[in-house]
């Protein structure tokens, strides 16, 4: 394609000749006087003009309204997306893409608190935040909503394109409804936690189907649950239908939702967006992914108590790759739990799910609550064969994707889907926490069989939160507490003697997320750090959640005594040492 061509699209006017889907285009008309710079092309729509790389596809949705808005190959989509798009069920991966559509009641439903508005007379907005690797701008003077998807590697490319935007003579102003106007209507929310308690068939598709399609499938298909990709930096499809209103309508009609996040992939794959091979960094990346998924779920009205499934595609497992994936999932799970959500994990039964099952009882990792496994054996059940023991995730905690990439039609609406079978329940036991228990002591003295009191109760609570059940925390160190302590110690590589001494206290008290904290930091992570340092150093560190000079000195003392870089900052290496009981 020439690098000096001018593309122009107006609502209802087709000037882009599509040869086959979005894969090829006819040569455009000769360039106009306002040709873009070398290796760029200009796209104009509805009074909004932008420059993008010359090799990006340009799709006029007035000409091809059912085109799949897919971001696995660079493209610009202009016009109003159809209610129903022709998308393959499985598009994994993202490069970059921009959608420019009119501001309408439908498109306004996609706007969130992160949506920016351009100043009057401008087509570009300075300092726009990216949410879930998506930048969204309402250009009200042109009456368009611009949604730009990117990865960490393509963000600067996308921002350069957005910064080139200009208004043209054809611009007509349409304002995006303000939050105050939306607040006057009844709040939109799912009818309870999702997917809730459900036994039966479901399906997942790359893009949320239209309301008409969902209605038709509800009345005539065998399905009662639908998987929707709500978040993640690696989602391949745009989601023009997926709004809080859509979520409310589906769940009110009896549909169960399977919320899915597609983020970083295993480090031993060829995907462009991968988690770190360093377990501590991978865990931090899982925390970040979960935070984005929680924000997306909240924006859609999917409440706490819902499960959100992290989609990690198939990989060829190695010991280091497995450690990275399970560390990522530990961070993912712990962050979801901190906001009251249930942790789910989607992967191939033969790779990610098998790896998770192999470490099911390893306290070094925080176990996910639900598994959603791809095993295309055609059996609509939740049998996991040799991949997962039947006793694991057996409490209504399974979804089986049993057929992939088939097109089905009900009520006149065809959708390319993966078939799923669900056995899930709201009664799924979540990882317990120690919220409300007293964990703050001036010293964490050794407790063991025969000990009793509040320190024993704290140890019992922490062991239970780590997945090793000592029974009801009653302050009496009996045989069950000894067994739980031994199991925890074994998972950490500590002497498995069932005695909770300094090393075991340190590992128990530091367990959880591992954000970098330093002078000026506050919050729960600082509190955990202060408790763990008190145990590790054998001296009192003030436990107040405020990283002041005393905490900084304690961190430096700990680092010096453990052969770590002595900077007074609790980063991955310091957390790793604490959580291993050093």
From TrEMBL:
Q: Which residues form the Rv2525c-like glycoside hydrolase-like domain?
A: 215-421
Q: Name one Pfam family in it.
A: PG_binding_1
Signal sequence coordinates:
1-33
Which UniProt keyword terms apply here?
Signal
Q: Biased-composition ranges for Basic and acidic residues?
A: 172-181
Signal among keywords: yes
The segment annotated Disordered runs over: 171-193
Q: Which InterPro entries match?
A: GH, Peptidoglycan-bd-like, PGBD-like_sf, PGBDSf, Rv2525c-like_Glyco_Hydro-like
Domain (Peptidoglycan binding-like) ranges: 452-508, 522-578
Concerning Gene3D superfamilies, the annotation shows: Glycosidases, PGBD-like superfamily/PGBD
Entry protein name: DUF1906 domain-containing protein
């Amino acid at each position: 394609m020439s690098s000096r061509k001018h593309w122009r699209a107006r609502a209802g006017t087709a000037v882009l000749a599509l040869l086959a889907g979005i894969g090829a285009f006819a040569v455009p008309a000769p360039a106009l006087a306002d040709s873009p710079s070398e290796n760029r092309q200009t796209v104009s729509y509805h009074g909004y003009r932008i420059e993008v790389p010359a090799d990006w596809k340009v799709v006029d949705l007035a000409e091809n309204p059912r085109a799949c808005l897919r971001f696995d190959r660079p493209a610009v989509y202009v016009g109003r997306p159809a209610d129903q798009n022709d998308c393959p069920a499985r598009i994994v991966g993202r490069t970059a893409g921009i959608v420019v559509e009119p501001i309408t009641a439908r498109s306004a439903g996609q706007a969130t608190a992160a949506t920016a508005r351009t100043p009057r007379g401008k087509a570009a907005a300075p300092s726009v935040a990216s949410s879930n690797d998506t930048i969204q701008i309402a250009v009200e003077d042109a009456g368009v909503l611009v949604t730009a998807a990117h990865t960490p590697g393509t963000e600067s490319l996308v921002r350069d394109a957005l910064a080139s935007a200009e208004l043209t003579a054809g611009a007509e102003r349409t304002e995006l409804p303000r939050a105050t106007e939306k607040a006057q209507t009844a709040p939109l929310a799912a009818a309870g936690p999702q997917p809730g308690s459900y036994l039966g068939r479901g399906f997942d598709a790359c893009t949320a189907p239209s309301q008409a399609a969902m209605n038709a499938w509800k009345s005539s298909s065998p399905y009662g649950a639908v998987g929707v990709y709500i978040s993640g930096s690696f989602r391949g499809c745009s989601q023009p239908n997926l709004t809080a209103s859509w979520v409310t309508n589906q769940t009110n009609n009896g549909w169960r939702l399977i919320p899915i996040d597609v983020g970083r992939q295993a480090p031993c794959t060829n995907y462009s967006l991968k988690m770190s091979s360093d377990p501590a960094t991978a865990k931090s990346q899982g925390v970040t992914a979960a935070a984005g998924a929680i924000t997306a779920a909240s924006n859609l009205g999917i409440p706490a108590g819902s499960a959100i499934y992290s989609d990690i595609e198939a990989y060829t497992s190695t010991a280091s790759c497995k450690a990275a994936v399970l560390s990522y999932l530990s961070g993912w799970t712990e962050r979801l739990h901190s906001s009251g959500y249930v942790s789910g994990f989607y992967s191939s039964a033969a790779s990610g799910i098998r790896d998770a099952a192999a470490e099911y009882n390893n306290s070094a990792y925080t176990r996910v609550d639900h598994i959603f496994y791809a095993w295309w054996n055609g059996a609509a059940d939740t049998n996991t064969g040799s991949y997962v023991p039947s006793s694991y995730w057996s409490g209504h905690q399974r979804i089986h994707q049993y057929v992939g990439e088939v097109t089905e039609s009900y009520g006149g609406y065809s959708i390319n889907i993966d078939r799923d079978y669900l056995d899930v329940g709201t009664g799924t036991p979540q990882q317990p926490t120690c919220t409300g228990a007293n964990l703050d002591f001036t010293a964490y003295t050794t407790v063991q069989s025969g000990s009793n009191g509040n320190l024993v109760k704290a140890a019992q609570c922490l062991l239970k939160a780590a997945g090793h059940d000592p029974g009801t925390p009653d302050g009496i160190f009996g045989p069950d507490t000894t067994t739980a302590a031994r199991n925890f110690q074994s998972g950490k590589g500590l002497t498995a003697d069932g005695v909770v001494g300094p090393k075991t206290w340190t590992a128990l008290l530091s367990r959880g997320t591992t954000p970098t904290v330093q002078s000026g930091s506050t919050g729960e992570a600082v509190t955990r750090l202060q408790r763990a340092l008190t145990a590790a150093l054998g001296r009192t560190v003030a436990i107040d959640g405020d990283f002041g000079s005393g905490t900084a000195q304690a961190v430096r003392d700990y680092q010096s005594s453990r052969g770590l870089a002595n900077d007074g900052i609790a980063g991955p290496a310091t957390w790793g040492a604490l959580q291993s009981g050093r």
